[in-house]
Here is the input.
Amino acid sequence: MLDEPLVNLDYKLREALVLELKALLSETQATVIYTSSDPRDAFALGDQVLLLEKNRKLQAGTPLEVYQQPANLAAAHLMSDPGVNRLPLIKGDEAGDWRTVRPEHVRLGSEAAPSADTELDFEMQVDSVERSGDETFVHGRVNATERADVTEHWVVRRPGMHSVEEGQVMTLHVRRDDILTLVVD
Here is the structure.
């Protein structure tokens, strides 16, 4: 049993230990229960994952299966870092379902031109920007196109460094195939 063994390590040591731990587990063929609140650990080390919330099973399967087909909103949040973004409510949305998109599936308006038949566009008021060298996180507010008073907080996660400023209003692109419709449990 390993209980969050990598949680407080700096990223270089963490990266080295993940590789070493993978090799050790493969070599010994040991069965290990590894607890973590970080979905990156599930992808790096897990053959199977079991998502738990408040002592209740949400979903089980391979990390990729659970990521691609989350059983509900809570499972999608647990397998996303940061959590999924809720699309602003529009006419016809079911009361018990949320339409969401993962932060890594949202493209900035400055990226590749959208294809109108496969993408939705949203306007974001940028509240803050985090740059980590290899990734840019953009935090902001997205309004529903039909109702300006309906706002959702979003995080956009993009590889590389992007020129985005706090206070900027920018267009975001989301492929329809990347929208998840999830049950709220």
